[in-house]
């Protein structure tokens, strides 16, 4: 049989040599050969199979016989199973068995339910009997037993029961328990009202130990309290007593309306034993303990009275009474005593430590008396307040400082005394030694980082004095308080930025000295803020007044700030400025007195750019207003046209007079108040606008008569004659400056249009050839004239002629020649 399982390889049946090539097709002879070979192999296989079957005939017969027996047995088994099923279906015994079992289960369930109902009925009867017992006990005044019963019934009827799953009778029993509870509560609270009361006439708190309930006498107060505790209304039962003690005892003691003396009296009367707490005014009502010792002593006596007479030294009752009383009691002590004792000066912080110690001892005594919990830190309200007194002190100081700074700024009016409106009170001059000068000398200040002086408002001067005073207090304070002072100083400075520009908004929209003072203030504050890290303690500077220059250079070597180093270099050459130099040196000693943890936190330099920007904004706003008014005045000249006509000339002259008036007004304000450098810069900008506008208007004229040239020249000379003192003031500031980092500037450098207008006045009566020669020698170019302006000017003045054409050609050729050279 192996031949049946061996595979036949068709390639073995072919004789073609390239049979392995899958791409070569088979030829017809090859196919016929393949068919014949397969037929021969098939016949061979059939022959071998037949021989194998014949040789194993007995084995195959046995196998077929066994298969026949298995089939016969399977049919027999199937017949038996069918008979069994038929037998079972004819006799259903299992259905009867199931019915019996179900009946047994029903009977057992009914029996169980009856037993449960009987048990529930027993419980209901027992609960009902106990509720009836409670009612009877309340009637006869045995509140202690009835309270215990109510507490036990509460666990059954009220606590942790799902009302939806309980029978209706439980709801009825619960309602009955509620009625008993309310009746018990009413009786107990009425007993407490009768046990503790306050007699207004004698200022006495009375405690009665033997009470009566519905005609039953001799019930002890201790029993009442136990009953109140049992039913779970201890806090409610003691609430009225706590209110009474707070109102009539604690509050008078804490508020210091009078010095209190506690008289503790135990007495027996016909109505039973009593305890009285009598409050009497002291024989000397003026004696008040500064550290609160007498107040705390009286409060301890009151708590002792409550502990022994009311709570019977029961810790649970005492803690409950303390929880009802202590929050309000501590708030009263804080508001009426501790908050008022918070020091208002850094030097008084040490004195407050006595109060802190007394307060700590007071709370320790309350813990011993079980009035407050010893393990709960939340009850240490007074100690926490006292420990945080530095925060309260800092908060109070900040409020007071900011209020003071705000009031100073709101009350400022920026009025100047006559001292500053007279000649000779310039920033660079010395203040006269008279009463007015002495009172106003604080308003003439030295700027720290320049060699200039300026006039500031009283608001800015007082504000910086306030800030310096605050920083002095920082040196005397702890880190927490010092940090609060530091923030107060910063906020005080920021108040100026918030208040002054808003308050003087109208003044900032007009030309007046108030706006200039605001500019000076902001510039002064920015300089002072930059120097705050190096200022304050002036006492230490006295050691350096006579210091030789050698030590000044040593101080310079030690200076770490670049701008400070520059100031030291500059000031070392000016003996009259040495106090300011020493002021800086002493500042380094001041910084060393700061608390160690604050030295890296105190920063003021970020505020300086804000004030510097505000100063520049105010000044630029004033400059724009001045320029706008000047342009409005010049517009009245109608471009200086037809000035040879009397009406037009008068109009132009009036316009020039208005310009002169505005500039003189600005000069009066700016020259006396602005910093020299700011005055020079601002006035130069304004004059440049005026001169350039007038020159441009004249150069734009397209036809100028001979008489008109004389009138225009007269107007220009009139302008210069009236502005000579103003121009001299600008030049004087430039010449009197001591520290020049660049060559001295002339008026022509500061005001380029000045020489142009001067030259224009000369051109108005200059011959044509002279004008042409001036252009060819670059004189006009050096004075700021353009080719087009010169050509238009010649066409406007001189009539068309061969000479004018020749001159214009020469001017144009000169321009191209200069252009080619460039």
TrEMBL record:
Q: Which subcellular locations apply to this protein?
A: Chromosome, Centromere, Kinetochore; Cytoplasm
What keywords appear on the UniProt entry? Cell cycle, Cell division, Centromere, Chromosome, Cytoplasm, Kinetochore, Mitosis
The chain positions of domain Centromere/kinetochore protein zw10 N-terminal read: 38-129
Grouped into one coarse class, the protein's main location is nucleus
Q: One GO BP annotation here?
A: mitotic spindle assembly checkpoint signaling
- TM helices/strands, residue ranges: none
Cellular component per GO? cytoplasm; nucleus; RZZ complex
Boundaries of each ZW10 C-terminal helical domain copy?
A: 655-811
Q: Where is the Centromere/kinetochore protein zw10 C-terminal domain?
A: 449-538
Instruction: Specify the Centromere/kinetochore protein zw10 middle domain's residue ranges.
Output: 173-407
Name of a matching Pfam family: Zw10_N
The UniProt entry's sequence similarity note says: Belongs to the ZW10 family.
Descriptive protein name: ATZW10
Which species does this protein come from?
A: Solanum verrucosum
